[in-house]
Amino acid sequence: MLKLLAPLIISFSVTLAFPVEQNSQGKSNQLGQPGNASFDYVIIGGGTAGLTVAARLAENPKLRIAVIEAGDFYETVNGNLSVVPGYGAQVSTPAVEWGFVTTPQTSLKNRTLAYNRGKTVGGSSATNLMAYHRGTTQSYDLWAKAVGDDSYTFSKFLPYFRKSVKYTAPNMSLRAANASVPNPSSQSYSASGGPLDITFPNWGNPVSSYAPAAFKEIGLDTIPDLTSGVLIGNQYSPVTIRPSDQTRSTSESSFWQASVKSGRGNLILYTKSMAKKILFTTAKKATAVVVETGGVKYTLSAKREVIVSAGVVSPFLEDENPPPNMAE
Predict the structure, then answer these.
(1) How far apart are CA 104 and CA 113, in angstroms?
(2) Cα angle at 146 between 48 and 4, to 5 degrees?
């Protein structure tokens, strides 16, 4: 029974906040306009991973980075639905979603189901339910073993987990006393981490306050946190919200905003733009991306690399002179 429940993570959190307005579109000179241009790196996809990679690369002021994103800023097209966490599942609207649907599932009497994937600046970090968990130590170690690369072990990943997030303890002057949260492992977070915000909501779901006793009955004891590589147990889930105003923290409101505020101006974001084709040399090196914005096609050249970060499920990209394993 315990083995069956091992991957079970129990966390109930509902965040309430007042509607707010944000201007996160950045400076106009950092929003790309249709037309041929050259960069050091061209990144396809401005989602959870794409903006993170882009912002890290842009920390080197000598580099120029372009990000191609099919969607628009969620604050513009989805309003407070994407900003205020209390809206929960209502966030997934056609304005910020690709609208993918699964094939008929035989085990579900041939039902088809929505397969939500973000189509907005920030990607699915702007549409998910904000729970922040990390996998188990063993799962990462198995990954490393499967690919023959120790870089994928949990211990090797942990420094990057720590680098990306800024943890703030819950505000217990607002949170109920019976919804207290223990201090996480000292290895889970770094004081110098960020810019993605991680904290707990000011309001804990009442069910969560009584659930631990029930879980203990089936062998799931309370554990310190859900971020240090151990998940057999139960604990309140940290969430990606800003502690200052309890609004959603996404790759857009964190990494993109941090890059804009830095004043470097070397990260250019092309919104409402589709990557149509990756161009390769005869030596099988990706050198450029054909982009379409508002019916206008143009080419963004990459002096160093083209990085595809468009999600596991993504509209088809064409290519010229693809490498032999491109289909894989």
Answers:
(1) 8
(2) 80
Helix then strand then coil, in percent of the chain rounded to 5, is 25, 25, 50
Of the CA atoms within 13 Å of residue 9, those in its CB half-sphere come to 18
- With contact defined as beta carbons under 8 Å apart, do 154 and 185 qualify? no
Q: Provide the sign of the torsion angle of the four alpha carbons 89, 137, 163, 237, taken in this order.
A: positive
Please indicate, yes or no, whether the overall pTM of this predicted structure exceeds 0.90.
Answer: no
- pLDDT above 60 (res 17): no
Q: How many CB atoms lie within 10 A of CB 123?
A: 29
Average pLDDT over residues 64-86: 94
Report CA-CA distances (Å) from 235 to 11, 206, 315: 6, 14, 37
Among 292, 228, 316, 318, which residue's Cα sits nearest to residue 69? Answer: 292
Class of residue 135 by CB neighbours under 10 A (exposed 0-12, middle 13-18, buried 19+): middle
| pLDDT score recorded for residue 7 | 33
Q: Which amino acid is at 7?
A: P
For the segment 85-107, what is each residue's pLDDT rounded down to a tens digit?
Answer: 888 888 989 999 999 999 999 99
Sign of CA dihedral 128, 309, 72, 19: positive
Of residues 168, 228, 155, 227, the one with CA closest to residue 194: 168
Which two tokens mark 101?
């649907």
**Residues 6 or more apart in contact with residue 274 via CB below 8 angstroms:** 68, 70, 291, 292, 293, 315
Partners of residue 296 on adjacent β-strands = 293
> Could you say which DSSP state residue 251 is in?
T
